[in-house]
Design brief:
Blueprint lengths: L26 H13 L21 E8 L4 E8 L7 E7 L16 E7 L21
């Protein structure tokens, strides 16, 4: 943790360079996870991501992914949670009972949202479907 007032519910994650990816010793774990996803009809809905940090986030900040389909690019930026217009979560982190703050669940059990994603109408240069204006946010 740093002095940027990190969220109490977040345990520190390893930096990307130090985070260990999937390997041969994870085969049984992945097979079990695939079986659970298949049992619930979620094989084409959820997968795995490597949890890691590149920099700390303050408790009132969230990561937001935007995309430009014409340029075929993705961008991730930090926004204030209370000010973001991007409300569709795309990545979640499991939070054991002991590590959660009251009310920290995402609505889908013991998870916290770690990445929000734009819908196409909020992407830079796209027409905002709500009022027809072009969204010029960078």
């Amino acid at each position: 943790m740093t002095d940027t007032q990190m969220s109490v519910s977040r345990n520190p994650l390893p930096r990307f360079e130090a985070a260990e990816g999937l390997g041969p010793r994870d085969a049984e774990f992945v097979s079990d996870l695939v079986a659970v996803l298949a049992k619930h009809g979620n094989l084409d809905r959820f997968g795995l991501c490597l949890l890691h940090d590149h920099f700390p986030l303050a408790a009132d900040e969230v990561l937001v992914e935007t995309h430009d389909p014409e340029a075929r690019t993705l961008h991730v930026e930090v926004e204030k949670a209370e000010e973001t217009r991007h409300a569709k979560a795309s990545q979640w982190r499991f939070t054991p009972h002991a590590a959660r703050e009251p009310g920290a669940e995402s609505g889908a059990g013991p998870c916290e949202e770690i990445l929000l994603c734009t819908t196409l109408d909020l992407c830079p240069g796209s027409t905002d479907a709500r009022d027809g204006r072009e969204d010029r946010r960078a």
